[in-house]
Amino acid sequence: MNECNWSIHLPVSLVDEWIREDIPFTDFTTSILGIVNKRAKARVILREKAIICGLHEASAVYTRLGARIEMMAREGEWGEPGQEIMRASGTGGQLHAAWRIAQTLVSIGSAVATYSKLLVEKARRANPSVIVAVARKAPPGLRHLYYHCVLCGGATLHRIGISDTILVFPNHTRLANGIDGVIKRLRESRPIIGERQVVIEVEDLDEAIRAAKSGIVDEIQFDHMSPDQLRIAIKEIRRVNERIRVAIGGGITLDNIEEYASTGVDVIVTSAPYWAKPIDLTTRIDTE
After folding, report:
1. What's the pTM value of the predicted model, to 2 decimals?
2. What is the dihedral sign for C-alpha 120, 123, 128, 134?
3. How would you class 277 by CB atoms within 10 Å of its CB: exposed for 0-12, middle for 13-18, buried for 19 or more?
4. Taking the domains of the chain in order of start, what are their residue ranges?
5. d(Cα 237, Cα 46) in Å, to the nearest integer?
6. DSSP label at 194?
7. Which of 8, 153, 187, 233 has an alpha carbon 20 to 30 Å from 277's alpha carbon atom?
């Protein structure tokens, strides 16, 4: 998929909060210079190659402040250094209030999309069917941007929030009388769980085997396990349940994702795109 066509609901209240953080009262500089009402144009320009993303969020900021937007590129596509990817027109006050927020959203978003794209490409060289899922570790207040750009990069979301799947972590297990207590409770709650997927993160192979035999678990997840250990674990799990999915998470980056994918694991969970270095770009404002 070259173009990112995801439908996004971006609450106005969120955009207003982004603006409020940067402009709690007034823009002293623009006001003092007397250019608040001067007609102007802004151009957002890439300085390095990247998957373009974050334009939707950036345009929402400009639009909320009264500027008009013209998209010069499509989200989800590769952009080149020097490429103009978005234009805005309005007053000096509108453009100076918007440009830094908007530029930062595109810079971060494009980094997330680019890193996600590279992760997927590397993983599928070794395992064409592997799922690359990005974890629920996006900074609060920016999840709309991060999740949107993960999808534009071709990866998927492990889960959006704690309401959409049953994901049992060791922190849950220790409070629920161990893995057997968890399995018992899950069986009893099957009618309430309904169609939701059940995933258990286990701490060792013994817990994994018990979960695989339970008939109630859809996916077993390991954390910070080496590729060699993972290969052995997958073989043992397949002996007792050949249909259950196996996932791995913890410390997976561009440097090692191909090796993990080669183990035959079904799902790779990572938060690495969230920490990608922001893409270098600039915004130039001139008279219209």
Report:
1. 0.94
2. negative
3. exposed
4. 12-117+277-287, 120-275
5. 47
6. T
7. 8
Half-sphere exposure of 280 (CA within 13 A, CB side): 6
CA 156 to CA 247: how far, in whole Å? 14
How many Å apart are CA 59 and CA 79, to the nearest integer?
18
Residue 174 C-alpha from the chain's centroid: 29
Domain 12-117+277-287 top-level CATH class: alpha beta
Which option is the CATH number for 120-275: 3.60.15.10, 3.20.20.70, 3.20.20.100, 3.40.50.300?
A: 3.20.20.70
Phi (first) and psi of residue 3, to 5 degrees: -110, 140
Per-residue pLDDT of the chain (288 residues; tens, 9 = 90+): 456 878 788 999 999 999 999 999 999 999 999 999 999 999 999 999 999 999 999 999 999 999 999 999 999 999 999 999 999 999 999 999 999 999 999 999 999 999 999 999 999 999 999 999 999 999 889 999 999 999 999 999 998 889 888 999 999 999 999 999 999 999 999 999 999 999 999 999 999 999 999 999 999 999 999 999 999 999 999 999 999 999 999 999 999 999 999 999 999 999 999 999 999 999 999 998
Q: Which stretches of 106-251 are assigned E, i.e. beta strand? A: 131-134, 156-157, 166-168, 198-201, 219-223, 245-249
